[in-house]
Amino acid sequence: MNGPILRMIDIGKDFSGVKALDSVTLEVERGKVHGICGENGAGKSTLMKVLSGVYPHGSYDGTIEFEGEEAQFRSINDSEAVGIVIIHQELALSPYLSIAENIFLGNENATRGVIDWNKTNLEAASLLARVGLDENPATKVLELGVGKQQLVEIAKALSKRVKLLILDEPTAALNDEDSDHLLDLIEHLRGQGITSIIISHKLKEIRRIADTVTVIRDGKTIETIDMHGPDATQARIIRSMVGRDLNSMFPPRDPKIGAEILRVEDWNAYHPVDTGRKIVDNASFTVHAGEVVGFAGLMGAGRTELAMSIFGRSYGTNITGRVFKNGTEISVRTVDEAIRNGIAYATEDRKKYGLNLIGDITVNVSAAALATLARFGVIDRHREYKVADDYRRRMNIKAPSVSSITGQLSGGNQQKVVLSKWVFTGPDVLFLDEPTRGIDVGAKYEIYGIINELAAAGKAVVVISSELPELLGISDRIYAISEGRITGEVAAKDATQESLMHLMTAGKD
Amino acid sequence: MTTTTPATRKPRLAINFRQYGILAALVVIIVLFEVLTKGRLLLPGNVNNLIQQNAYVLILAIGMVVVIIAGHIDLSVGSVVAMVGAVSAIATNQWGFPWWAAVLLALVVGAVVGAWQGFWIAFVGIPAFIVTLAGMLIFRGLTLVLLTGGTISGLPDSFTAIGAGWLPGVLGELGGRDTLTLALGAITCIALVAQQLRTRATLRRLELPMESVVQMAVKSGIAVIAIMWLAWLLSGYRGTPIILIVLAVLILGYTFMLNQTVFGRHVYAIGGNLFAAMMSGVKTKWVNFYVFVNMGVLAGLAGVDSTARAGGAVASAGQNYELDAIAAVFIGGAAVQGGVGTVVGAIVGGLVMGVLNMGLSILSVDAAWQMAIKGLVLLLAVAFDIFNKRRSGGR
Mind telling me which residue stretches traverse the membrane in this protein (chain B) (predicted)? Predict the structure, then answer.
């Protein structure tokens, strides 16, 4: 067969009057990797849900042609039956089942309801070999890291004789090594004739792996770029995505660094379950007023654990060490105490630890500083509304009103709610853990602007991030962490990605 | 900066529809049974009984909605009602406690029971389902020990009045009706309207969004008609049941607590996302603990009420009350996973069950069928709610 494997023509979809997709056209060549880029809320996920039958035929406008024939999927089962498999950002594996059981879940090797375990495990083993995962098929999924779980998902897709594999932000939760492995695998599958659509915010990866890229903005197709062409640069994709030139990825910064605000000395923390394991190892650092300090470390290096153990002992056991604020030692044994001492910590997992997703913007913004809005335990609801509305404007949270449910906001706007919540506590020191994870380029730029404003207001800001260009772009000073130890401290202007990576991978001598 | 303020009204209406959906269901059920019973459902005596017979379930539902918003469940309240009822009966009958001392003792016993269960749930970390399932057995057993298998009756009138008495008609009669009841109804209406106007004035002063005048007028109008109509009916019987006053105070107090206080907000925060609440400095363990202490106190009050109404304590008192209370809360729109629910919803849910009970009894439907029908109503109410949420959920 020749011609494109998939054509989506003039796809339109609206949600009670709000247009999410407006005559989007997408053509995917057989045996290629096709990237889809766009800001959050641009309509990428909606488009993929139309394609995979989550939104059934009839609930959208336009036509879908798969392998030259018109397709009318009424459910995910329909699209899987012809070989379209979607792997979502949040993995959908059952933790207490084995790898083999997960691969064949819903598709069991069974006769009259009785499972043939030998066949299941044998086939699973060969699928695992295909995706390059060296694990026993009987291993429970909860024992695997996120990277390996991702591979199990792909093995599961292969078991369904996938022709078109859709990956939604596949590397969002992976470290560099696992990401590399995954991208290699996608290339390898391309060699075997499997077409992939990959949605990603990480343009470097798109640049590396995609043959063509379609950019979607505000529910419309902006352009499709041949990535082997001469002008297929990252800057061009960004320009298409945001509809404007980003002269720089980072807003200009003019630091005015004042006195030391926070000093942490000889900080140690042990794993909460495996109490013999030292997770944070004798860490000492300082942060000054008006300063943005970056923490660079690979996943599992102990960056988050360091911040959380300081923030009211939210992580770890047998924590020792001393914390000084403005030169006086303070106690931060509970979250409440930390907040009262002017420390804020915005978590890396905003959905799990950061927000009440069924609550509206108002209750989330006020959540960590309710006491300041209350007298004798009674909340001044009017003032609370005003405060939330004020933050909605200041942080440019895009929502109809502060009564909007946070779970329905885009990632970037959710992050702005989290930041509002912590800024409202009136902190002197803010720990921001992966503040731009999973959010689009435009919102990232806004968040960097907010960080600059906070520093300009004399606050000390600590940013933990896996993205080295980001750390180099927004920090004044960077600490590198490896295996729970601070392995280096450099001025951002003197550091390079390479020099940081060197420190971040420094092992114990 | 881009701001989009004018769209505030639409989501509000949507929320209101959900809230009023159950109220509409209550009205439909009342009208339905009024027709089926050929007008007997709303005879003054029956309306009075509807209140006095369901008061303890409504009191329990108020405590239960707090428990369920926090993401827990309490299966023990029926047994606690029985045990506290036994304690209060012993106190008045055998120890000669005056009524107020017996009530106080009952509330304290309820609080201790709540603290016991709260300790295991909040600080030891055992799921509430297990702790209160154990409590259901423990306190039923203790009730049997206290009553040694028999019953205690012959309680003083001052005590039984709590569940089965009326406010004295101190203002005399007006055309054969109790003046005090009519006056209370009128005062309530005036207070309600004044409160609405005051809130509106504050909102205007602070330039905050508010509902339209028509919306407010319609809402207040319906409320005034409902209150006056209830007062009219009750005044034609024996006047205002004492327990109705208790209930009104509880409904107002707990609505205020959940909506306006830090503690109430923390309860919603814990149910909405426990981890986020923890990381925001909420003392989640203590909040959980007090949620159960509160449930215990209200179960104690329900125990007093049911004992007073029955005029004595029996070991089998309070059986299945926990299920009635839980059903009321869920019919009233609370979410199984926590974080959502209102006191008013739970009360309306409880009344739906109460009207069903009474209507079916008047029609002399067999008790077995009554149970089955109530079960179906619970199922359908929650299914309707889930269906609604899905439709309004969008993407």
Answer: 20-36, 56-84, 96-113, 119-139, 144-167, 179-197, 217-235, 241-259, 288-304, 325-355, 367-387
Q: Show which of residues 362-421 on chain A sit within 8 Å of chain B, judged by CB atoms.
A: 363, 366-368, 370-371, 374, 377-379, 381-382, 385-386, 392-393, 396, 398, 400-401, 403-404, 408, 421
Collapse the DSSP code of B72 into the 3-class scheme (helix H, G, I; strand E, B; otherwise coil) and give the result: coil
Confidence of residue A503 (pLDDT cuts 50, 70, 90): confident
Q: How does pLDDT run across A464-502, given as a tens digit for each residue?
A: 987 788 898 899 999 999 888 999 999 988 888 778 877
> Which tokens go with B217?
């007028």
Average pLDDT, chain B: 89
In angstroms, the CA A124 to CA A109 distance is 11
Closest by alpha carbon to A402, among A438, A366, A350?
A: A366
- Does the beta-carbon distance from A379 to B282 stay under 8 Å? no
Phi-psi region for residue A221, left (φ > 0), alpha (ψ -120 to 50) or beta? beta
Which residues from chain B sit within 8 angstroms of residue A336, using beta carbons?
281, 283
- Taking only the tens place, the pLDDT of each residue in B2-36 is 333 333 334 444 445 556 778 888 899 999 999 99
Say if B392 is an interface residue toward chain A (CB within 8 Å): no
Q: The tokens of B57 are what?
A: 């379930």
Indicate the helix (H) or strand (E) that contains B234: helix B213-235
pLDDT at A431: 95
Which helix (H) or strand (E) segment is A329 a member of?
A: strand A328-330
> Which residue is closest to B200 within chain A, CA to CA?
A382
Q: For CATH 1.10.3470, list the domain ranges present in chain B.
A: 43-164+248-386
Please report the domains of chain A, with CATH numbers, ordered by start residue: 6-242 (3.40.50.300), 248-342+427-509 (3.40.50.300), 355-426 (no CATH)
Which residues make Cβ contacts (< 8 Å) with residue B380, sequence separation at least 6?
none
Rounded to whole angstroms, the Cα distance separating B264 from B328 reads 20
Q: Within an 8 Å CB–CB cutoff, is residue A501 touching chain B?
A: no
At B1 the pLDDT is 36
Q: Which residues of A touch B281 (CB under 8 A)?
A: 312, 334-336, 338-339, 368
**Which pTM does this prediction carry?**
0.79
CB atoms within 10 A of CB B134: 15
* Structure-token pair, residue A16: 């009670």
Q: Return the SS3 of A434.
A: coil
Give A404 to chain B, closest Cα distance, Å: 8
Structure ipTM: 0.82
- CATH topology for the B43-164+248-386 domain: ABC transporter involved in vitamin B12 uptake, BtuC (1.10.3470)
